[in-house]
Amino acid sequence: MDTTMLEPEGREGAMPRGGGLDPLLRPTREAMLARRANPAPRWKRVLRPGSSGPAAWIRPEVDAQAERLGRRTPGTEHVLLALLAVHEVACHEPQLAQEGGADELLAGLGLDYARAHAALDSGGVTLPADPRSVEAYLADVAGQGTDRLLRALLEEDTRARRLVEALRG
Question: For 49-94, where are the alpha helices, taking DSSP H only?
């Protein structure tokens, strides 16, 4: 794999705070704000370690992204969309900014949510089957943060990696 895909370009690639949030990201914003206002009780966080922090925001968003694109079973491309969506919403909502994790890596990709979503929605990018299930990727990086999740998606020949290559190429 071309490891330059994982190298951050610096903060100039990051989404600026302020400005209008893309309408496609409003459901993500509302879900994140609702989770922030109603966090899981402490006893649930203790019984289910790793169920808080950035990874906890990604899993429900993966399913939402797949559903918005008419897919029952999420693929790694939906994980990438979820990472992009959470990143962009956090950049626009100061109270959510610490919920990110893969900020530098995502900025280094030079992609934004709207462009990736449009490519998937139009069917303009042909994607092969993922080598492993989304659950396998999420389980392998549990507790390691979203930066490790993004690296795992891009290190293997996944649908997420193929989407990034198509949009960057």
Answer: 54-68, 76-92
